[in-house]
Amino acid sequence: MEGGEKGTVCVTGASGFIGSWLVMKLLQRGYYVHATVRDPGNVEKVKHLLELPKASTHLSLWRADLKEEGSFDDAIQGCIGVFHVASPMDISTQDAQNEVIDPTVNGVLDIMRACTKAKTVKRFIYTSTTGTITVGPEPLPLEYDESFWTDVDYCKAQKMTAWMYFIAKTTAEKAAWEFAKEKGLDVVTIQPPVVVGPFVTPSLPPSAKLVLAVLTGEEAGCNLLARGRAVHVDDLCDAHIYLFEHPEAKGRYICSSHCFNIIELARSLSLKYSEYNIPTKFEGVDESLKSIPCSSRKLLDLGYKFKYNSEEYDIGDLCSGAIESCKEKGLMPSPGAFLLFPWKFHDYILCLIGFFRFRSQLLFICYDFEVSGIRLGAKRLEADTTRPNRIGLGQYFEPWPHEKQRSQQF
Length: 410
What we know:
Blueprint: E1 8-12, H1 17-28, E2 32-37, H2 43-50, H3 55-58, E3 59-63, H4 73-76, E4 81-84, H5 96-118, E5 123-127, H6 152-158, H7 163-183, E6 187-191, E7 194-196, H8 206-216, H9 219-224, E8 227-232, H10 233-245, E9 251-254, E10 258-261, H11 262-272, E11 282-283, H12 297-301, H13 315-328, H14 345-357, E12 362-370, E13 373-381, E14 389-390, H15 403-407
Helix pairs in contact: 1-10, 5-7, 6-7, 11-13
GO molecular function: dihydroflavanol 4-reductase activity
Protein name: NAD-dependent epimerase/dehydratase domain-containing protein
Family: Belongs to the NAD(P)-dependent epimerase/dehydratase family. Dihydroflavonol-4-reductase subfamily.
């Protein structure tokens, strides 16, 4: 239901991909929103929030930082609900404990203490992740539900991609449940997988980077997409609000609508964006390869319904929203275009050599994204879309000898 005034809520991490979409949905529903950001004075990072419908009357920005104890207190005063979305995402850091794990754990506890001090907060909604559920040694289950917990010791030993994020979110959620039990705070946590869809942020969200990987051949992204689970950002934010408003909501809730592999995603996107000659065969990836499902049965049994469900929408439908947002914001390369960027001089020379050396190949500018920013590199994308592509180092190209060491930097 949209319209009527519903009270004041706080959203942490409001300038991010999920946070800004959630703010937009809450404003549509008639809530007043206290949106916390690290720097309200940075116009470029908050402009998209201030331009949302009803922002002029129903939105206020508050400075807060997960690393600063007590900084959320003022923003939470007078709120009936708190949606804690903010989370450190620097998975490339060399100091995982201080940069990711400690801020995540200490931050959630600091915000929960602010909730108890405010004495007005009816429910605390914490945006967790299926990464708190699915990471552990074999044997693996046929299906995951909310009873599963990620094995922190396994993450420390294996140090897989984003291991510190899995540890941080798992430890933080367990700490949140202990705090809730001790202080009597009404807490609900929600566990989404990869969140895809359009975005209102001015910069590219990490999840949109994953979607673009299929078009551009970005190595790390394609590896992560070999098989996966996803949910549309609109469904996730609606689920946040549903769980806040539903009186019987209790405990953990997985919010996942799709299981897929990269072949399914590539086939769907190749039909929608034929100008990119998206490959649909990947060496080492079987067409029957599937992720182990994360069951949303508990959420559905509560009465929630996915708008972007797997019966009516395939994974490409979910991801196309991100691509369209990239087009609108000028974040997409032109198909087949060779664009000049401020590289070092030797990069231009290497590209020219590559052009003459590989005339039969399509020279394509692709994005080499990192969570902390964007770097650009020249990579070759085979025009023959029937040729199997490898999942691994340089899955869309064989690195030149001088590139082998350099490519590992991306």
